[in-house]
């Protein structure tokens, strides 16, 4: 494939991805048709089907790219086994979210499916759980679920509110709440 064709393919895919993000801001994925996508992206249906099976396939590929990027950010960080979550792990992820706020917001919204949220919740595999050794396996699952779900809720709210807080202060909040719960705020 020539460089010109390669560039065209990349541009077409980018246009379709941007169209999906735009449409997801106003309607659920199940209400978005290939025709809607093609009209919004100004791309022919045959071109769409060259790259994707349907709107769900396009969504799935976008989500896979985001997960891959987040995993890449996480793998670049050193693992600190004394703290399950630290700023060095969270800040790059939050910065990625901030840089791609429109995309991440719609992928985590009720107009999308829960694939990205579930994938992000699987990132606990990167986190050391040695600080939970006092709990049995079932209780560890509850504690991890609580921490990850709460962190996801904070991330969604931060994105929705326009990311006014710095990534550093948000990372510190998540860390304090994850490690100490609301006890941290009792004075």
Automatic annotation (TrEMBL):
The keyword Repressor applies. Keywords: DNA-binding, Repressor. Residues 33-52 bind DNA. The keyword Repressor applies. Residues 10-70 form the HTH tetR-type domain. Signal peptide: none annotated. Pfam families: TetR_C_8 (PF14278). InterPro entries: Homeodomain-like_sf, HTH-type_Tx_Regulator, HTH_TetR, TetR_C_Firmicutes. GO terms for molecular function: DNA binding. It comes from the Bacteria. SUPFAM superfamilies: Homeodomain-like. This is DNA-binding transcriptional regulator, AcrR family.
């Amino acid at each position: 494939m020539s460089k010109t064709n390669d560039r065209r393919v990349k541009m077409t895919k980018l246009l379709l991805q941007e169209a999906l993000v735009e449409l997801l801001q106003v309607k659920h994925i199940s209400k978005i048709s290939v025709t809607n996508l093609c009209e919004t992206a100004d791309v022919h249906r045959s071109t769409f089907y060259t790259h994707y099976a349907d709107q769900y396939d396009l969504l799935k590929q976008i989500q896979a790219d985001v997960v891959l990027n987040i995993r890449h950010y996480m793998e670049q960080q050193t693992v600190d086994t004394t703290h399950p979550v630290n700023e060095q792990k969270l800040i790059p992820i939050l910065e990625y979210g901030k840089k791609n706020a429109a995309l991440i917001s719609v992928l985590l919204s009720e107009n999308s499916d829960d694939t990205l949220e579930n994938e992000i919740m699987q990132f606990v595999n990167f986190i050391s759980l040695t600080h939970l050794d006092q709990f049995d396996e079932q209780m560890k699952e509850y504690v991890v679920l609580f921490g990850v779900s709460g962190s996801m809720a904070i991330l969604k709210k931060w994105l929705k509110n326009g990311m006014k807080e710095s990534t550093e202060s948000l990372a510190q909040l998540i860390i304090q709440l994850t490690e100490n719960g609301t006890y941290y705020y009792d004075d």
